[in-house]
TrEMBL record:
Domain of life of the organism encoding this protein: Bacteria
Membership in a protein family: Belongs to the cyclic nucleotide phosphodiesterase class-III family.
Span of domain Calcineurin-like phosphoesterase: 1-232
Protein name in UniProt: Metallophosphoesterase
A Pfam entry, by short name: Metallophos
Keywords: Hydrolase, Iron, Metal-binding
Length: 307
């Protein structure tokens, strides 16, 4: 099975926006957009990524949050329209929210993300979902894709996240279900599980209870954790707590980024090849602004598949 991972699309859509919408944390975010981000992210670059993933025959696409910039209704409409363009999206897409999707208390209270991406948030084991809809699990062949929310409204200039305690307990129970025993387990979250080496102040953007999340994942022998948030490609691994096997922790970068020439920060996506409940390879493609397409950058192969 081939799973594509994209993240941090930051769809910007300011048409029909009321100036009063910026009478909040969005004022700081709007200034940041004007200074840095407005030209950095492109819906067309995201479309190029989805087209390339289709050409590369991925079976499923995981999106690890920050679909929007300012959690505006117009941005959610544009972002959900983009995802709906994926063929058979309702059965081929899993998505979780990021901090920008919970940018204001109003967006969180109105559950704008969940309203617009509801088709991709159902669970094949709904008994473990809290009233918020998380965690969920999607079974695809012998792969279990588990999604959880780490987005919370934060003060200006803060971008940290946290998994709610009740959702953390539900995650522990879900991973204990016998139906997951013989599956390759993929865990989706927006915030990183490990410290980011380029962060000037870790506390402003970290996952508050990352240690608790990692303990659960390692105890239950989760195979792969994918996240976003840092806009930086990375592959790390930690041993399972029982001493058998490893948890791979991977970030795709910001897929829609068209403004960075450094490969690690360029627009990118990952493809995970999974065969017989093992991770075979991680293939990374980055955006080439000159060719206006995504090109192969690197690949990590863990075992060869005999054809």
């Amino acid at each position: 099975m081939r799973i594509g991972h994209i993240s941090d699309l930051h769809v910007l859509h300011l048409e029909d926006v009321n100036p009063l919408d910026f009478a909040s944390k969005r004022l700081v975010g709007g200034i940041n957009l004007l200074r840095h981000r407005a030209d950095a992210h492109s819906v067309e670059v995201a479309r190029h990524a989805l087209a390339r993933l289709s050409e590369l025959d991925v079976d499923h696409i995981c999106i690890s949050g920050d679909m929007t910039n300012l959690a505006l209704p117009s941005e959610f409409r544009a972002a959900s329209k983009l995802v709906a363009e994926i063929p058979d999206a309702e059965t081929r897409v899993s998505v979780v929210p990021g901090n920008h999707d919970y940018y204001t208390r109003g967006a969180a209270r109105e559950r704008r993300f969940e309203q617009h991406f509801q088709p991709y948030l159902h669970s094949d084991l709904p008994a473990y979902q809290e009233s918020t809809g998380y965690p969920f699990v999607h079974f695809r062949e012998d792969v279990a894709i588990i999604g959880i929310n780490s987005g919370v409204p934060t003060p200006p200039l803060m971008a940290w996240g946290k998994v709610a305690e009740n959702e953390l307990r539900a995650l522990d129970a879900l991973l204990s279900d016998p139906k997951l025993k013989d599956c390759f387990k993929v865990f989706m979250i927006h915030h990183p599980l490990l410290p980011f080496q380029y962060a000037k102040v870790q506390e402003s953007r970290h996952l508050v209870n990352a240690t608790d999340v990692l303990k659960i994942l390692r105890e239950h022998q989760v195979d792969l954790a994918i996240h976003g948030h840092n806009h930086h490609f990375s592959v790390n691994k930690l041993p399972h707590l029982n001493g058998s096997g490893d948890l791979y922790i991977c970030e795709a970068g910001s897929t829609s980024n068209r403004a960075n020439s450094l490969p690690e920060f360029a627009g990118s996506f990952n493809i995970f090849e999974i065969e017989d409940r093992e991770l075979v390879s991680i293939e990374t493609h980055i955006y080439d602004g000159f060719e206006d397409t995504f090109v192969h950058w690197k690949e990590e192969v863990f075992r060869r598949v005999l054809v």
